[in-house]
Structure formats: C-alpha cells, structure tokens
Design a protein that fits this description.
This protein has 234 residues and is an alpha+beta fold. It has 6 helices and 7 strands. A 7-stranded mixed β-sheet has the order 2-1-5-4-3-6-7, sandwiched between helices. Helices cover 27% and strands 21% of the residues. The model is unreliable at 168-212 (pLDDT under 50). The protein has a single domain (4-233), classed as Beta-Lactamase (2-Layer Sandwich), CATH 3.30.450.20. Strand 1 (40-44) and strand 2 form a beta hairpin. Helix 3 runs antiparallel to helix 6.
Length: 234
C-alpha cells in the first residue's frame, strides 16, 4: 500500500474487525475515517454480479465525472478486464480477505494517472457475500484530476494481503490510531518477488483465534488469479 489514504482505511478496517475476518457494516463510523471518506465507496454483491455502487464518496464521483451510485463497478474498466475484476471482487468475498490493486487511467488528451485501489470485505447481517468496502486514490494527482473524467481503468497489479502482514501493521491502542501509518509500518509493506512482477497472491485471514478458514477454497482462488495474471502479463 503506497497511498496514505489507502493505508488509513486499511488500518481502521483491520482494527475494527478484531479477531474476525471482517467487521460488520453497521459498526463502521464515518467520522472515524472522515479524512478519507470522500475517496471510499461501497459495492453490492448482487445476483447478476454487476457489483453496483451502493455509496460513492465525492472524490470518487469527481474522479469519474458523475454520480456513481447504482452504476456497475465493472463499467469503469475496459471490457476485456471486466471478468478479471469480477473475479477479484468474488475473491474478496469468498476468502474474506483484503485485495490491493494498482491501475492506470487517462482523461481525454491527458497523460496517464496511476491509481491505487483497496477492496475490503465487510459483513452485512453476518454475511460476507453482500458488501465490499473500497477506496481509490491517485498516487500522484495531476492538475486535471477532478475537472476531467477519467476513461476506463486498466489493471496493472494485484495482490491479496496475507494474515501475517495484517498482524504486523496493526497499530497499538491509542487515541490517534486511525491516522496514516508511521515510517516503521511502511517498511513492513510487502514487496512482490521478481517471478511475478505484477502479482503476488497470498492468503488473507484473521488472527490466530479466528474461526478455521476454507484453505482449499483459498488455494483454488489463488490458482485462478495466478493463472489469470500469468496469461495476461507473460
């Protein structure tokens, strides 16, 4: 995770979930993430697997040039990427694990802007197959951002956050625990190996006392994602 807003949302979600794989939607306090709220969104896992926006922050709407509520999240991506993104979102729900993605996008006549996205599972009345909390933020905001809508997004990187990393960057209890992580925590962020320069898929999960995970299912998801990106980038 490179962007401070992405890190802040992750730290809040990670602290809120406690020993569970994901927190409940109604436990989330918008005031606790007020500094990054405009960059966040919530997606619905609908039966048609179109993943419509349930909520979208003001900067998310500005990024894409219009109100996003009700729009399919898949429509933001190139048509050939839509299936891959749907697979990523189902991985978040099936594995109850966070996924970090890197992407690029352009506005008409402008240079590319690099984006970082984070997808987090949240429970809705106990079920993980209902909502996904997300955030999208530009790594370096160009002057035109927010005045021109960006075109369809192109995926560049992807990884599932492993349980050890989640434990390593959990901040100690303190009054300002939802602020962006310190330099020490940043040094713990995972670096992908050379064999898969665009992808490292590793198991997400709860802390040691969390309920048993479906390791066979997660292994299958890892294989599917690895195969997908080997085919895309080799």
């Amino acid at each position: 995770m490179r962007h401070k807003a992405v890190k802040e949302l992750f730290l809040y979600w990670n602290d809120l979930r406690g020993e569970r794989t994901a927190p409940e939607r109604n436990e989330m306090d918008p005031n606790a993430i007020r500094h990054v709220l405009a960059d966040t969104f919530q997606l619905e896992i609908d039966t048609g697997r179109t993943f419509p926006f349930r909520l979208a922050g003001t900067r998310v709407n500005a990024l894409f040039g219009d109100e996003q509520k009700g729009r399919s999240f898949l429509d933001l991506w190139r048509p050939e990427e839509a299936h891959n993104i749907a697979t990523v979102l189902l991985t978040v729900a099936d594995g109850a694990c966070p996924v970090v993605a890197g992407a690029v996008a352009t506005a008409k006549g402008e240079n590319e802007v690099a984006l970082e996205l984070l997808f987090l599972p949240i429970r809705h009345y106990g079920k993980t197959h209902a909502r996904i909390l997300g955030i999208v933020a530009p790594i370096k905001a160009p002057a035109w951002l927010g005045t021109l809508p960006i075109r369809q997004i192109n995926l560049r990187s992807l990884r599932v956050v492993e349980s050890e990393e989640m434990r390593a960057i959990t901040p100690p209890a303190q009054s300002n625990r939802y602020l962006p992580p310190s330099q020490d925590r940043r040094s713990m962020i995972f670096r992908a190996p050379a064999r898969h320069p665009f992808l490292q898929v590793i198991e997400g999960g709860g802390k040691p006392s969390a309920p048993p995970r479906d390791h066979a299912g997660l292994a299958r998801l890892r294989r599917e994602l690895t195969t997908m990106y080997d085919e895309k980038f080799r």
